[in-house]
Amino acid sequence: xxxxxxxxxxxxxxxxxxxxxxxxxxxxxxxxxxxxxxxxxxxxxxxxxxxxxxxxxxxxxxxxxxxxxxxxxxxxxxxxxxxxxxxxxxxxxxxxxxxxxxxxxxxxxxxxxxxxxxxxxxxxxxxxxxxxxxxxxxxxxxxxxxxxxxxxxxxxxxxxxxxxxxxxxxxxxxxxxxxxxxxxxxxxxxxxxxxxxxxxxxxxxxxxxxxxxxxxxxxxxxxxxxxxxxxxxxxxxxxxxxxxxxxxxxxxxxxxxxxxxxxxxxxxxxxxxxxxxxxxxxxxxxxxxxxxxxxxxxxxxxxxxxxxxxxxxxxxxxxxxxxxxxxxxxxxxxxxxxxxxxxxxxxxxxxxxxxxxxxxxxxxxxxxxxxxxxxxxxxxxxxxxxxxxxxxxxxx
Amino acid sequence: xxxxxxxxxxxxxxxxxxxxxxxxxxxxxxxxxxxxxxxxxxxxxxxxxxxxxxxxxxxxxxxxxxxxxxxxxxxxxxxxxxxxxxxxxxxxxxxxxxxxxxxxxxxxxxxxxxxxxxxxxxxxxxxxxxxxxxxxxxxxxxxxxxxxxxxxxxxxxxxxxxxxxxxxxxxxxxxxxxxxxxxxxxxxxxxxxxxxxxxxxxxxxxxxxxxxxxxxxxxxxxxxxxxxxxxxxxxxxxxxxxxxxxxxxxxxxxxxxxxxxxxxxxxxxxxxxxxxxxxxxxxxxxxxxxxxxxxxxxxxxxxxxxxxxxxxxxxxxxxxxxxxxxxxxxxxxxxxxxxxxxxxxxxxxxxxxxxxxxxxxxxxxxxxxxxxxxxxxxxxxxxxxxxxxxxxxxxx
Lengths: 396, 396
Known about the structure:
Two copies of one chain form a homodimer. By secondary structure, the first copy, chain A, is an alpha/beta fold. The first copy, chain A, folds into two domains: 9-206 and 334-392, Rossmann fold (3-Layer(aba) Sandwich), CATH 3.40.50; 234-314, 2-Layer Sandwich (formyl-coa transferase, domain 3). The first copy, chain A, is built from 17 helices and 14 strands. Chain A has helices at 18-28, 57-63, 76-88, 100-103, 108-114, 139-145, 166-189, 199-205, 210-217, 251-260, 275-280, 282-293, 298-307, 318-321, 325-329, 372-380, 384-392; strands spanning 9-12, 32-37, 51-52, 55-56, 67-70, 91-94, 119-124, 193-198, 234-238, 243-247, 312-314, 333-338, 342-347, 361-362. A six-stranded parallel sheet of chain A has the order 5-2-1-6-7-8, sandwiched between helices. Chain A has a three-stranded antiparallel sheet with strand order 9-10-11, covered by helices on one side. A three-stranded mixed sheet of chain A has the order 13-12-14, covered by helices on one side. In chain A, helix 1 (18-28) packs across helix 7 (166-189) and helix 7 packs across helix 8 (199-205). Chain A starts with 8 loop residues before the first strand and ends with a helix. At the A-B interface, strand 3, helix 2, helix 6, helix 7 and strand 8 of A face strand 3, helix 2, helix 6, helix 7 and strand 8 of B.
């Protein structure tokens, strides 16, 4: 046996980002992903930029290597096809607004009757329970409602969004964890499970020390730019030419940091000798360091600190990532060739397991319904004529 | 059988954040976590604030419900205890700098000889391969090197750190996914696996559309404040009293948005009728909306949009989360009572599975070595006298 999820079949009704990102990870683990799309229209994110040759590169970057079937789930025959596929699959995943699956006649209770050991995983803005359950949501809402926007950015700037879709992607990761937990349990017990992941729940879960800081300090944490709230120095500094970061995560690193700057005396300075003191005297310490760092270029400071084993880095722009020797060495940028788009580079697979061979080249994303024949024949025994007729009738 | 990972035993050598956050999630899924700490010293994060009654609430918030044994892994006897425990466990997890386990005589090859079906999971700054493998890292380095700092914040501000430890927590989620994949595979094949998660790899994986925008546009994406790069309007607006966000994620929402503002004509306005046009004419649209929104308070706009099913939210501060009806309803804030700290509130479990019962109260984090007797007796058959003697000799 090869990859971890070899043989696992996932009926993927998800669209846009949170759901598809999760099924992308499950695909990397070896599962077969059968993406269900509305005939003609497809996943909303096929309409999201950036585009190349009028085709969404965004969609490609999240749906590579999946299979697509086009099914009009609002038609009776389409619904029957979904129910028949549920019988043949291990997992059904969806990220519709809560209530949609029930309205389609495809709620968990109905699916469970057709396949008692089905794992049913939902990803939604607020979860399937509680007063907000049926409200629409998006990444920006999760970031705003869940508190991360209130602690990101600068005191004198407007609220700041995390520059990637943290609300969606974080929920995608939690969904993946939930599905994998349920799959493990199913392998032992034969039982299905229901996974109900909420973007808001997941945002709350990753606030790290913000919840407890509020309880200890009695005031809400505020945005503090690029430093760490309780570890110092652990922030960006301006060198002569550009910014760099340094992370002094424990007292041993602090000693090495001081030695590398010829400031050994700071290790015994009552203002700076321990992390708690350094955090209390942040302004004083930062002012002293600013004076030092402005004298040389960032790469010089990074080299100096590297030679003393002090964690540090330049602040990379996206273009810098494409020539980064560690990123290359880890095969974290891979190519995909799409017949319309041409060749593009996307993120590689960060799930490095001995059981998952590295791929230098990924398969493209499917066209809408590209795998209608393959899936409906293999899973349900449909003939070519049956499939053609369903297509003519607008079911596929 | 109850929770998904009931009966799974994890030997947890991790410290600080990325590793312990992952084992916290595995604990929520039902695994037994045996945290190994250096006698007397313990996990570094026991020294991280915020503190209450001189004890780290930070440590508690990430290590609740785990078991702790104190083992000096640098001693021969301590090393033997670890190897004996490896034989009894399903998974070993560590987030030392690569090379440390080998130096301790506890490298993967040695552990695998003692337990061929062991799953060995590492979380590190750069992974265990490649030219950067042995460099030290921290969250701020992952954020800086992996590109997210370069796309978060405002054009005229210094580089901005995401306000929570995204580098660590993201890697923790990927680690959890890797371990779960390996556990599933082990259940089928009986084989162990090696999981090698890099904070930098994981950062690259969640950049979402930044990598492809660079390839299509030819320039690195820059920080853009609180809007979405390709979806409009999808951003924060200033109302009379405070900021709120609105997310117009597709054309149906755009129609409802226009109707709710009595601007039906915008749905046919060539500048705004489609998302791509709205994104091109962002400044013009934002200026028009700013004029409208400044007239009323944020809560009035949120009410109006809610009644038209347009996704929107106030931007919550941390204090707002404690009284949020959806958060309460989903049991996402739970209490822990520690004998020194007293009662504190921490994030609940976002992994909502039917097979995981909700807990209103969580167990506290362990003291260093609190479970020495329980674990060493139950797993290895040690007597109280043996354990006491090991303690006297500084092994425990």
